[in-house]
Recover the amino acids of this structure.
């Protein structure tokens, strides 16, 4: 009879340790994998290019320039006029010398707007440009 | 005797419920905010200076010009659809992938068309790409 009582009380107390372990592992995984530097403009639709090369280790100096479908230039989500963009590029060029430029152009943007950005880069002496395109779309979008 | 030992153990145990609550909240937050990203490809081109002299240092016969306009593509003065362009570029690249390709875009052509041409060039292995504007 006393044995029966004890078994009952132990049965009601679930051992939490393994569950907490697993949950902490999951949290650590999510904290590590989360990217807080998502300053990309969600409105920009990139064209698809499934054969393009993927860059594994992106140069940290890379300047990402976004051009939306209306041809507006933005950097890190901040919209800029062309003269302001020129000033920023010039300042960066003075500081860093050559740096890679990645152009995230909306697929509906007209070439003249892309051209404006390319011309400004060319003025600064940056001849190598990269266009971003989607190699593989995310599955859960 | 046994009973006393158990009581001692109970006192030492922390109250787990609030911690588990918080931890679950965190877990749910991270699961909800996790978003898979697109895999991006970087299409590398060179943009010549407005002065065309540095580009024409290449041998002229190794130069291929693709024109991109609003409604399609042109190769060697003839209109091409994307599939025709792909066929032609595949054939040309089979001779040599060392050919310099000049992609000329009209001002009103969509950026997507330029990316399509760059994609084709990447597919057939042409690496020396320059973008001109008209």
């Amino acid at each position: 009879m006393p044995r029966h009582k004890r078994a009952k009380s132990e049965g009601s107390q679930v051992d939490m340790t393994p569950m907490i372990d697993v949950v902490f592992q999951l949290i650590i995984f999510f904290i590590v994998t989360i990217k807080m530097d998502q300053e990309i403009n969600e409105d920009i639709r990139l064209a698809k290019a499934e054969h393009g090369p993927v860059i594994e280790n992106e140069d940290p100096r890379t300047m990402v320039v976004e051009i939306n479908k209306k041809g507006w230039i933005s950097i890190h989500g901040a919209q800029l006029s062309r003269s302001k963009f020129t000033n920023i590029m010039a300042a960066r060029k003075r500081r860093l010398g050559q740096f890679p430029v990645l152009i995230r152009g909306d697929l509906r943007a007209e070439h003249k707007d892309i051209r404006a950005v390319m011309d400004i880069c060319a003025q600064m002496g940056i001849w190598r440009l990269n266009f971003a395109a989607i190699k593989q779309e995310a599955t859960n979008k | 005797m046994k009973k006393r030992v158990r009581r001692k153990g109970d006192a030492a145990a922390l109250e787990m419920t609030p911690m588990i609550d918080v931890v679950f909240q965190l877990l749910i937050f991270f699961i909800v905010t996790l978003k898979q990203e697109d895999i991006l490809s970087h299409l590398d081109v060179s943009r010549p200076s407005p002065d065309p002299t540095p580009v024409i240092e290449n041998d002229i016969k190794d130069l291929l010009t693709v024109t991109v306009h609003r409604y399609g593509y042109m190769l060697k003065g003839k209109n091409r659809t994307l599939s025709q362009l792909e066929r032609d570029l595949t054939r040309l690249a089979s001779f040599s992938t060392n050919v310099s390709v000049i992609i000329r875009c009209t001002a009103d052509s969509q950026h997507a068309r330029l990316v399509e041409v760059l994609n084709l060039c990447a597919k057939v292995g042409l690496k020396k790409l320059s973008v001109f504007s008209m």
